[in-house]
Design brief:
It comes from Nephila pilipes. GO terms for molecular function: phosphoric diester hydrolase activity. The protein has eight helices and 13 strands. It has a six-stranded mixed beta sheet with strand order 3-4-5-8-10-9, with helices on one face. The chain is of the alpha/beta class. The chain binds zinc ion (2 copies). The site of one zinc ion has 3 residues, from loops.
């Protein structure tokens, strides 16, 4: 009898001592660097982006770059379609999609704007048709940057980072190209008034490209005065900005921002690409399997919870003629409370 009583006491203590806290969380996808290439050919020249030249058409050519793509080339339509289908199969109703650019194939000649608009339109249509049913309507896109409220209290800011890019010398003498800094500060200060939290998104992250050849210096992404300006704003509004998401590096990595004071405030997540392309002429460029990322976040606070990184094993997919999406890892993004306070 005492045993039953003890059990009841233990159970009572157990149930009372565990207060249940309910958090509501949602999901969003982060995809980047799609680099869709409609001229990809299984029999094309891998040294020429897997494109077929006129003379190749009549050549007796056994080369097979693969149905799903090649690490020397950009994304074939087949790979792109299976990527979107995979996202739908894994989570078909994301709250929103963070899509951080680089949609055109790598090309030395560039593309005219009509072609770029068409390709972005095609990708957008496919995303909407496959799983996404809401298209953000913009009132103004001057300068190529905008912000939108994705849920009550959570705003996403999309920056045009090309304006600050170190390779872009058009704006180097301009203090605030297209007045993006001024706009960013206005949006962030309005977010404080409206009690919103903010995710910052962009194609090119601040800081340096992390891989270099021996004795080579890191390549800065923005001009120095632009990165300083951006970081001072990010520092001033670090309690509003609760996530930053970028692409461009074709690597899976994160950044922690350190300021002149020696403190670390904020971080950025850089997602790996859909395109398997890498620059095989440079020893610091790495081939990466086509990847997409599913992020889980608290819908009320916007706080990041974790993300799951999915990838397609390209060699196996080509070999077996079958797509098998695997998942690399699931990362916990929750920072213990005391760690947060020590860096704030
Ligand atoms: Zn890219
Ligand atoms: Zn890029």
């Amino acid at each position: 009898m005492w045993f039953v009583s003890l059990c009841i006491r233990i159970l009572t203590w157990f149930f009372v001592s565990h207060s249940i806290e309910c958090y509501v969380y949602g999901y969003f996808w982060h995809i980047t660097d799609i680099h869709l290439d409609r001229n990809y050919s299984r029999n094309g020249n891998a040294k020429n982006g897997c494109h077929k030249k006129i003379e190749d058409i009549f050549a007796f050519n056994f080369t097979d770059n693969g149905v799903y793509g090649n690490f020397q080339c950009d994304t074939p339509e087949f790979l792109f379609n299976t990527t979107i289908q995979n996202m739908k199969d894994l989570h078909s109703r994301p709250d929103f999609i963070v899509w951080t650019g680089d949609n055109m194939p790598h090309s030395k000649n560039g593309f005219d704007m009509d072609t770029v608009y068409t390709e972005v339109g095609v990708i957008t249509d496919l995303l909407i048709a496959t799983m996404f049913y809401y298209l953000i309507k913009f009132t103004s896109l001057q300068g190529g940057f905008y912000s939108t409220l994705v849920s009550p209290g959570l705003r996403v800011i999309a920056l045009n980072t090309i304006l600050w890019l170190s390779e872009n010398n058009e704006n180097v003498r301009v203090k605030d190209p297209e007045e993006q800094f001024q706009w960013l500060e206005t949006v962030l200060s309005n977010s404080i008034v409206n009690q919103e939290k903010v995710y910052i998104t962009g194609h090119i992250p601040p800081g340096f490209y992390p891989r270099t050849t021996p004795k080579q210096k890191g390549i800065p992404m923005y001009h120095q005065h632009f990165v300083e300006h951006f970081q001072s704003i990010a520092n001033n509004y670090s309690y509003v900005i609760i996530g930053q998401f970028y692409g461009h590096f074709h690597l899976d990595m994160f950044q922690i921002f350190e300021y002149k004071t020696g403190t670390s405030k904020g971080s950025a997540f850089i997602a790996p690409p859909v395109s398997p392309w890498h620059d095989d002429q440079s020893s610091y460029s790495l081939p990466v399997n086509p990847s997409v990322r599913l992020v889980r976040y608290f819908t009320e606070s916007g706080g990041l919870l974790d993300y799951t990184q999915y990838y397609l094993d390209l060699d196996t997919a080509n070999c077996r003629q079958k797509v098998i999406w695997g998942f690399n890892f699931k990362t916990d993004l929750l920072i213990p409370e005391n760690a947060q306070s020590s860096t704030s």
